[in-house]
Design brief:
Elements (H helix, E strand, L loop, with lengths): L2 H16 L1 E3 L1 H15 L5 H12 L5 E5 L4 E6 L4 E7 L5 E5 L2 H13 L8
Helix pairs in contact: 2-3
Length: 119
């Protein structure tokens, strides 16, 4: 197995070990800690993530990590979510998941018996 394949397998194993259902309150607390740790002032870009959390307050969310400071939040109901990154070197980042990410999360959730709620 080459380095890239090993890295992919490590990320997959991390997601399988950490993927679980949670609620918007936990997600909001974690996102707030992420923003505070980044040392940045909350801006319009952050507001989009806050709006995502508020929109999904009444629905189950899935969360997990893929190692190396990469965490994600996913709404199985809407097949949408976002990611955050806190690297060891202090770099941070955040963005929204794409359709490919949603498909992979559903595949991994199925492997651990995590089922999407009925719509």
């Amino acid at each position: 197995m080459n380095t890239m394949e090993q890295d992919r397998e490590n990320r997959r194993a991390a997601v399988l070990a950490s993927l679980h259902a949670t609620g918007a309150t936990e997600v909001a607390e974690r996102f707030n800690r992420f923003v505070e740790a980044s040392g940045e002032v909350t801006n319009e870009w952050d507001q989009r993530f806050i709006e995502f959390i508020e929109k999904h307050r009444e629905f189950p969310l899935w969360t997990g990590n893929a190692g190396r400071g990469f965490e994600f939040v996913f709404s199985p109901r809407d097949e949408a979510g976002f990611w955050t990154l806190e690297a060891r070197d202090g770099a941070t980042g955040k963005g929204f998941l794409d359709h490919h990410d949603a498909g992979r999360i559903f595949e991994l959730a199925e492997q651990i018996g995590l089922r999407a709620p009925a719509r």
